[in-house]
Design a protein that fits this description.
It is built from 11 helices and 22 strands. The chain is an alpha+beta fold.
C-alpha cells in the first residue's frame, strides 16, 4: 500500500524517488499523485519520510493541485533561460533543471527513478544528471520495485474504486448474456433479424458500446473467442466467426476506470443453446478446482501452493499441464492467477516456479482463473473471479459476482438444453439466476 513507501525505501537504502511522465498510461505517476491528471512535462520527487512534491507546468497547476500534494511551478526555475545558457542542449538543460528540483527538497544520495518516457532519452538523462552531480546516484530497479511492492496490497479506498468498475462490468456482461439469448437459431448458428449469421464481430461491437456507456476504458480491448479460438487462452476471437450453438465462448473482459485508473478482470465460459459432453466435463472440472483453491486460500500462505494444488488436480484427471510439459499447448497452460490494480498484471503471482516467494498477504487483490484448453478439439474453458483479502476481517471477498452458468438458453432456440449450472460440482449453492453481489468467505 502507499503507506509502505517509506519503509520500502529504508529497506532498499533509497534517499529519494523520482517519477516522470504524464499520468495517462503511467501507473507510477498516477499512483503517486492520487489520480490527478497531468501532462508529460511533470516530475514528482519524494524524499524519504516526507510527502511527494509535484513539479508541474504552470498550465497544469490546478489539475496537479487536485492530488492534495504540494505543487511547485516549474517556471520559477526559468527553464528557457537554462536552455539558452546550454546553447540549446536540451539534455543538459533538463539535467540541470532536475538537479534544481532535487535541491529544492534537499534530496541527494541514492535516488530511484520510475515512470514512462522513451528509454533511450531516460538513460541519457540519468547519466547526464550523475555527471553534473557527484552527490546523486541514480538507481534503477527491476521486477520487485518499490512501486510493485506498494501495489501488492490494496487499501479500502482502492478496492472501492475497483468494486465500482466491477459493478459496471457486470452490467456489460449481463447485457452480453441477454443479447446472445435474445437471438433465434437457424442451421446451428445464431442469426440476426435479416437471417444472416450473428458473428463475433457483431457481439464485440455491442460490448464496446456498453463499455463506453458505463464510462469505462478498455485499452487492451477484451477476449470474446469461440470454438478453436477459445482453446488458445489469449486469442481475441475472429470477427468473422459465427456464434455457433454448442461451441464454447471464452469471454474475458478487463476494463479500467476512465483516465488510466484501476482495472478489473473477469472471465466466463458460455455455450449457446447446449454444451457437448466433453465440454460439460471440462467445465465441471474447472469449476471444481476453482472452488477448491479459492476456498483453501488464507492469509500468510505461499501463493505457489495454489498453483501446485491446481496442477495436482488436473494431472490426476489426465490433463497435460505446464509442470509435466512446459511446451504443452493443451490442457492447463497458464498460472492460476495474478494481482490486478493500476496494471492488469501485478503481484502477487499465483505461479509455481522456483524462486516465487509471493505470499497471500492481507490486502491482496487477485484473480483466480483456472482453465482447460483443447484447440484441436475445438474448445476452451476458463472461469475467473476477482478476489480481495480484506485486511481488517481476513475475509476473502468476490468482487463482481455473476452466475457461473455454462449454457445460455435461447428464447427462440433450436437444439437441446444442458442442465449444467453454476451449482454443478460446487460446494456452495445459491449463485443461479442473474443476481449479483459480493460473496464472502471467512478465513482463519
Amino acid at each position: 500500500m502507499k503507506s509502505d513507501f517509506d519503509r520500502l525505501m529504508a529497506e532498499r537504502v533509497l534517499d529519494g524517488l523520482i517519477v516522470t511522465g504524464p499520468s495517462h498510461a503511467n501507473p507510477a505517476m498516477y499512483y503517486m499523485i492520487n489520480g490527478a491528471h497531468v501532462g508529460e512535462a511533470t516530475t514528482v520527487i519524494k524524499k524519504r519520510d516526507e510527502a511527494p512534491v509535484i513539479f508541474a507546468n504552470s498550465m497544469e497547476r490546478d489539475e496537479a493541485a487536485k492530488s492534495g500534494l504540494r505543487v511547485v511551478d516549474r517556471s520559477q526555475y526559468d527553464p528557457l533561460k537554462i536552455l539558452n545558457e546550454e546553447k540549446g542542449d536540451r539534455l543538459r538543460a533538463r539535467a540541470r533543471l532536475t538537479a534544481m528540483m532535487l535541491d529544492e527538497l534537499g534530496v541527494k544520495g541514492r535516488v530511484a527513478v520510475y515512470g514512462r518516457e522513451e528509454q533511450g532519452e531516460a538513460f541519457a538523462l540519468w547519466h547526464q544528471l550523475m555527471a553534473l552531480r557527484n552527490d546523486i546516484q541514480i538507481v534503477g530497479e527491476y521486477g520487485d520495485t518499490v512501486f510493485n511492492r506498494a501495489y501488492y496490497t490494496k487499501d479500502a479506498d482502492e478496492v472501492a474504486r475497483i468494486r465500482a468498475v466491477g459493478e459496471k462490468t457486470m452490467i456489460v456482461v449481463g447485457n452480453t448474456w441477454d443479447f446472445l439469448a435474445s437471438h433465434r437459431a437457424a442451421d446451428g448458428v445464431l442469426v440476426k433479424d435479416d437471417g444472416t449469421p450473428l458473428t463475433v464481430g457483431d457481439v464485440k461491437r455491442e460490448i464496446r458500446g456498453w463499455i463506453r456507456e458505463q464510462e469505462l476504458e478498455a485499452p487492451e480491448d477484451f477476449i470474446f473467442a469461440i470454438g478453436r479460438d477459445a482453446g488458445v487462452p489469449h486469442s481475441r476471437g475472429e470477427d468473422s466467426s459465427p456464434i455457433a450453438l454448442g461451441q464454447t465462448i471464452v469471454y474475458d473482459i478487463f476494463p479500467r476506470e476512465a483516465g488510466s485508473g484501476y482495472y478489473f478482470d473477469f472471465t466466463r465460459t458460455w455455450c449457446v443453446g447446449f454444451a457437448p459432453p466433453d465440454v460439460e466435463k471440462a467445465f465441471r472440472e474447472v469449476l471444481e478446482i476453482f472452488n477448491i483453491t479459492s476456498d483453501a486460500m488464507h492469509p500468510g500462505t505461499p501463493c505457489a501452493n495454489y498453483q501446485k494444488m491446481t496442477n495436482d488436480y488436473f494431472e490426476a484427471r489426465g490433463h497435460p499441464t505446464m509442470r509435466t510439459n512446459p511446451q504443452t499447448t493443451e490442457g492447463y497452460v497458464h498460472s492460476l492467477g495474478h494481482g490486478v490494480g493500476l496494471n492488469i498484471h501485478e503481484g502477487p503471482s499465483l505461479s509455481e516456479y522456483e524462486g516465487n516467494t509471493d505470499i497471500l498477504e492481507p490486502g491482496v487483490a487477485i484473480t483466480v482463473e483456472p482453465g482447460l484448453y483443447y484447440p484441436d478439439k475445438g474448445f476452451g474453458v476458463r472461469i475467473e473471479d476477482f478476489l480481495w483479502l480484506n485486511p481488517k476481517t481476513l475475509t476473502l471477498e468476490t468482487i463482481g459476482e455473476f452466475p457461473k452458468d455454462l449454457v445460455i438458453p435461447l428464447k427462440k432456440a433450436g437444439g437441446r438444453r444442458s442442465s449444467l449450472r453454476s451449482g454443478a460440482g460446487e460446494k456452495k449453492k445459491g449463485t443461479g439466476g442473474k443476481g449479483r453481489g459480493t460473496k464472502k468467505r471467512e478465513k482463519k
